[in-house]
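re: the backbone from monday

yeah here it is again, tokenized this time
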């Protein structure tokens, strides 16, 4: 290893970065204390509570057919909804940044509506629209296609609540993307597809992945907007958060914590992989 590489490595792994303002240790102590109180201590309590049942009891709760079906629906529907939002959210962000059209500000404001709307209100609205006698559900009913009270209804609700995350993650990156680079690529003879794949995509891919991760994380734990449209049928349209609430209503706190711990572990692994992919994309984009 050369002296330059060693110096760069030491700088990258240095514990304390110098600052003209100083105050590293108070800031670092506050960060550790705040995260411990808000995040680490509650998660530690969640990790410890299920073991009241013992290893066999925890495994019995987590591996039960009903729990596995609920976990599959929660994570599967969240992944599909986040993927849908990653595609269409990017298209909406592109239109809002690159084009001028009547009502643009209104549409831009409507994107944030799922943030402000109470989840229960959103769930009731979606259920009334997609129910067999609703505005959209009635159009599919003659073809024997049901949206509400099925896993499809769960995905519709998760798409609704996760949509703003992708748009707001991609929009500022597109706004900062210099159009001169695209025009230069076109001037040099690059096709539209090559310009998108080699100029635009490397710049916005980390932002799309960030939006996907945020939408996925929100969808996994979503409760209020889902229970009204899901129908909550065990083994069919019952999500894991609802199963946790059912356990709590039965005063089975350890069982609820066991399901929560399973969700925490799966979420941690998936978000860890997404963050790794984000870091890789960021390095490649910078290169």
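seq for it, each position gets an aa:
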């Amino acid at each position: 290893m050369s002296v330059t590489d060693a110096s760069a490595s030491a700088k990258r792994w240095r514990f304390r970065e110098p600052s003209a303002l100083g105050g590293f240790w108070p800031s670092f102590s506050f960060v550790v204390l705040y995260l411990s109180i808000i995040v680490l201590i509650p998660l530690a309590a969640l990790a410890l509570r299920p073991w009241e049942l013992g290893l066999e009891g925890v495994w019995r709760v987590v591996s039960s057919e009903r729990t596995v079906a609920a976990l599959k629906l929660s994570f599967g529907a969240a992944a599909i909804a986040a993927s849908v939002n990653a595609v269409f959210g990017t298209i909406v962000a592109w239109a809002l940044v690159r084009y001028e059209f009547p009502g643009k500000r209104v549409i831009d404001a409507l994107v944030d509506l799922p943030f402000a709307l109470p989840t229960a209100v959103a769930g009731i609205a979606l259920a009334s629209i997609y129910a067999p006698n609703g505005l959209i559900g009635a159009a599919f009913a003659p073809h024997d296609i049901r949206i509400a009270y099925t896993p499809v209804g769960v995905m519709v609700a998760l798409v609704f609540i996760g949509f703003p995350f992708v748009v707001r993650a991609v929009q500022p990156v597109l706004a900062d993307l210099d159009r001169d680079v695209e025009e230069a690529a076109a001037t040099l003879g690059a096709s539209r597809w090559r310009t998108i794949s080699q100029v635009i995509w490397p710049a916005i891919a980390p932002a799309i992945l960030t939006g996907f991760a945020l939408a996925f994380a929100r969808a996994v734990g979503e409760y209020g907007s889902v229970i009204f449209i899901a129908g909550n049928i065990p083994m069919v349209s019952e999500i894991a958060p609802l199963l946790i609430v059912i356990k709590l209503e039965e005063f089975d706190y350890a069982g609820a914590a066991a399901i929560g711990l399973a969700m925490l572990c799966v979420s941690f692994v998936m978000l860890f992989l997404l963050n790794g992919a984000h870091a890789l994309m960021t390095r490649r984009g910078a290169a």
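The domain at 55-286 is CATH 1.10.3720.10 (MetI-like fold). The radius of gyration is 23 Å.
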